[in-house]
Amino acid sequence: MIHILLSIIVLQMNTGDIKSKTGQVPSVKISGYTHFIYTYHTADSIIDNFNITHARVKFYGNLSRRLFFRLEPNLLTGKIRYAYFDMSLFPFTSLRVGQFKVPFGAEYQPYPVKNLTPTLSKATQLFTQEVVTGDKGLELHGKFPHLKYALALMEADPTIESKAIGGMISIFPVKKLLELGGAYYSGEYSQEVKFMSGFVKIDLGVAGLRAEFIKGNMEDIDKMGYYLTLYAPICSQKLQGSKITPVIKYGYADPNTEIDGDASKEIHAGLLLKFHKHLRVFSFYEIYQEETIDVNNNRFIIDFNFSFQ
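User: That's the sequence. What structure does it adopt?
Assistant: C-alpha cells below.
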C-alpha cells in the first residue's frame, strides 16, 4: 500500500504544469496560531488559571499543480498533529493521504481557528473525547457548486485490525445563506464506537445560526446531545476595520440516555472581537448546570487567539 501511495505522489508531481495554484514556482508557506486563555471560576474551590491550549506552526503549499501538502506540529506536545498530501484526481475529487482531522462534527471542523466560542459544546465533546480526532488514513473529498463531501478510512486503534470509517456531506440550497448536512463515524477501539449527526448553518449577513444534533453509541451505552448558536457580527467604520460579534450558545448533553440524572445543560454568552486578521479575542461567561447535582462549574473566559500567515 505504501509503495502504491508513493507512486501516486511521484506521478502527480511529474504530471502537467509544475506551477502551484497561485501561479508561482512550488514553494513552502508558513502560518501558525496559539490560544492563550485566562479562566476565572466563580466557585472558590476551583483555582483560576492561565493556560495555553494550542500552539502550532503549519507548513503548507503546492508541490505541483495537483499536489498539496500540509505539515502541522503541535508545539505543546512536540508531536505531529496533521501531516498529509492532497492529490487532485478529478475536477471534484481529491485524495488525502496521511494524518488529518476526522471528518465529523460541524462545530469541531473549524475549531480552533474559526470557532465562534472558546469552548466546544458538551454535545461535540461526546464525540471528541471518545475517538482519535487526528487520525491516519485515506480520505476522498471534494466540492461541487451546491455540495461538498468527505469520506475517510482511518486507523483508529492501531492494535486492532478493524479500521474506522467516517464521512460528512452537506448541501447548499442557497449559497452563502443555507447549509444542511450530516456526518457518520464508526470505529473499533476497546469497544465499538458509532456516532452520527445532523446540522444546519444559516448566515443572513447581519445574523446567523448554527445548530447540530449528535447521537452516539458505545456497546450498550447511548449518548445524545445538541447545541444551538446565535451570532450577529457588527462592523463599523468607527471600529476601524474591527469586528464585534455577540454570540450565545445553548447546549444539552446526555452521556448515557438509559440513566436518569446525568445530563447537563450549558449556556455560553459573550463577545468575539476581531481586531485584525492576526488577533481574535473571546470574552465569554459559561454557565453549566447538572441535571441532579448542584455544582458550581460556571466560569469567565478570556481567550487571546494569535495567528500569523
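The two ends are 35 Å apart (CA to CA).
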